[in-house]
Inverse folding.
């Protein structure tokens, strides 16, 4: 496999947005009558399920499909399970969605079930994986992954989003509190925090090392943080966790601090919403709320062929339905008018070289994409650095021929993962 140097002389040219200095409160979206929760585990009709349609659930109740399930979700309301169905993601992976009918007119202040928490990471992992911000508790509690550094991200990873900067400005004390809790639970000695260089935080903490990140995209992506602030080069095909580093969002740390104080789970997710004219809104919505409830609150009308993108403009993916629920790790939603959706085309590569010049990982994107178009995933990885890609999306942004390079790469990595899993299974 080729392992190219990660360093490059090419300068990224896009700037991150900075949160307003005195941001106003987010628009609070009322809890809807039906909430949809997604469980990673698929339905297995041969097994006896622990939950079924018609079951009553309490706010804060842990829901699992089967006795042996390690995946779970937590009900954000007291109500009834009105549907359990298969959910298909962008790559055709099957998971499960649960629809909970909200039985009362509940407010966000309604009491949630309390838990018997212990001061260890396994206990946190037992109840708090689905807190707003999706803390990586499964990894932190794992016996097989050895984490020695935690990085709290106050700098938003994609363009346009200011969700984590907002949380940093508003809840800095909670972040410090959450950091202390994280340190106590995990006993991981090194705690760092990323803060955009232009954001004035209200005071630093002895407990946490602050990394001031550049305003230039893609400085806030994990691979860039590792390179620029920890002098670590992420090897091809490896994750930050493989290198002993775990990233956790500012929102997840704040959620954890509140959860430990109240001994119960929180469900209110902060989101940055970008409207059709580029207007930016900030919303606070209960996990499981369908997106159209948020759009209605801001009088954003979705027409046929408009596009809803979950995530930022560089790394986001389109969803096919405005019923898509708010999820614990959803920071940004963009609505693009059908008339201004950036076009993609079938035009072949014209070898302009722009993608290669802008790629921060020095991937030969123009050649790589030919192998991906031909479904030659192993060759793409072995000869053309598929796995060195840090998924910044810059190549697709600059492509003269408007080839959806980023989407090809994401799909290629996914197919490669499946191929390798199959090979491993066949070898056993
Ligand atoms: S998304 Fe494109 S530009 Fe970014 S690292 Fe991957 S190949 Fe390079
Ligand atoms: S930017 Fe697009 S057209 Fe230009 S070399 Fe890369 S893939 Fe080809």
């Amino acid at each position: 496999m080729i392992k190219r140097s990660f360093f490059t002389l090419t300068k990224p040219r896009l700037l991150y947005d900075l949160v307003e200095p005195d941001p106003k409160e987010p628009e609070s979206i009322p809890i809807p009558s039906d909430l949809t929760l997604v469980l990673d585990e698929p339905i297995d009709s041969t097994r006896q399920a622990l939950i079924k349609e018609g079951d009553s659930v309490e706010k804060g109740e842990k829901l699992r499909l089967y006795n042996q399930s390690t995946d779970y979700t937590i009900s954000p309301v007291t109500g009834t399970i009105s549907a359990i169905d298969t959910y298909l993601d962008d790559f055709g992976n099957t998971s499960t969605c649960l629809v909970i009918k909200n039985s009362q007119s509940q407010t966000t202040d309604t009491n949630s079930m309390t838990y018997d928490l212990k001061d260890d990471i396994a206990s946190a992992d037992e109840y708090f994986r689905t807190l707003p911000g999706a803390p990586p508790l499964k990894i932190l509690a794992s016996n097989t992954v050895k984490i020695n550094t935690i990085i709290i991200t106050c700098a938003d990873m994609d363009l346009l989003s200011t969700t984590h900067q907002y949380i940093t400005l508003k809840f800095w004390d909670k972040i410090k509190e959450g950091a202390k809790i994280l340190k106590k639970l995990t006993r991981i000695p090194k705690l760092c925090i990323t803060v955009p260089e232009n954001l004035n935080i209200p005071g630093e903490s002895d407990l946490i090392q602050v990394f001031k990140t550049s305003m230039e995209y893609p400085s806030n992506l994990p691979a860039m943080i590792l390179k620029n602030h920890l002098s670590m080069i992420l090897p091809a095909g490896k994750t930050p966790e493989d290198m002993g580093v775990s990233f956790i969002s500012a929102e997840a740390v704040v959620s954890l601090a509140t959860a430990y104080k109240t001994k119960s789970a929180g469900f209110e997710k902060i989101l940055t919403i970008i409207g059709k004219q580029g207007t930016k809104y900030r919303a606070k919505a209960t996990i499981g709320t369908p997106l159209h409830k948020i759009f209605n609150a801001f009088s954003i009308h979705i027409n046929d062929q408009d596009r809803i993108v979950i995530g930022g403009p560089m790394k986001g993916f389109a969803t096919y339905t405005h019923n898509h629920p708010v999820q614990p790790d959803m920071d940004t939603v963009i609505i693009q008018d059908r008339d201004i959706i950036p076009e993609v085309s079938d035009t072949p590569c014209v070898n302009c070289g722009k993608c290669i010049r802008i790629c921060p990982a020095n991937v030969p994107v123009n050649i790589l994409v030919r192998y991906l178009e031909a479904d030659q995933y192993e060759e793409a990885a072995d000869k053309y650095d598929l796995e060195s890609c840090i998924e910044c999306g810059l190549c697709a942004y600059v492509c003269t021929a408007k080839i959806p390079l980023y989407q090809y790469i994401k799909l290629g990595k996914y197919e490669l993962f499946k191929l390798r899993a199959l090979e491993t299974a066949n070898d056993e």
Notes: DSSP finds twelve helices and 16 strands in the chain. The CA atoms of residues 184 and 397 lie 42 Å apart.
